[in-house]
Amino acid sequence: MHNPCKKISLLLPLSWLCLVVANPAFASPQQMDEALRTRLVKAINDSKSFNDKFLAEVWLTDMSLRMRRYIKNSDDRIRILRVLHEESARADIPPEMVLAVIETESAFNRYAISSVGARGLMQIMPFWLREIGKPGEDLFDIRINLRIGCTILRYYLDKEKNDKRKALARYNGSVGKRKYSDKVFNALSRRWYRQ
């Protein structure tokens, strides 16, 4: 059986893989905040979707065109965008910000694996699944990955009183540094801004 994860992990640049090494979102279970664990368990059982069909189609079309440099198949792009919009709405995060985080974390490679084992679009560590009582789930599943990633990011936004720069630094494990946040903001302004 072909394992796309092994092949893809070899293609990732070393500098990108190093971004997640010190990430608190990927910290060991012993370091996990109980409030974050509670939020993740609640998020797994919650969902939202588009409220306005016309606006949904406009947004999906626009973002799909912007995403095609990363994902060639239009059906795959739309599927990711639908789930991303739903999960970002559930977590009350602008979907464009989530797109910028994904570009920075995995370049939209849903099978990405970091050198420390973080997986998928938003680079989630496998121990999270055990911690929230879902050890059999698959972090390469788009919905699971985005739900956990958006929940973690929302938690850090709340913890940092909605200071996006500080929350992104926490997500990346680079508290007090600007490099990761600047990369996300750069991707947001270059490609994922709202028109």
Question: What features would you describe in this structure?
Answer:
It is a single chain. The protein is 58% helix and 0% strand. With 195 residues, it is an all-alpha fold. It has a domain at 30-107 and 142-192. The termini are far apart. It contains ten helices and no strands. The chain has helices at 4-11, 14-18, 34-44, 53-67, 74-90, 95-106, 127-131, 142-159, 164-172, 179-192. The chain is globular.
What is this structure's SSE topology?
Elements: H1 4-11, H2 14-18, H3 34-44, H4 53-67, H5 74-90, H6 95-106, H7 127-131, H8 142-159, H9 164-172, H10 179-192
Helix pairs in contact: 3-8, 4-5, 5-8, 6-10, 8-9, 9-10
Q: What would the keywords be for this entry?
A:
195 residues; mainly alpha; 10 helices; 58% helix; 0% strand; disordered N terminus
Classify the beta-strand content into a percent band.
Answer: under 5%
Order of helices and strands: HHHHHHHHHH
Largest sheet: none
Task: State the helicity in percent bands.
Answer: 55-70%
SS field, number of helical segments: 10
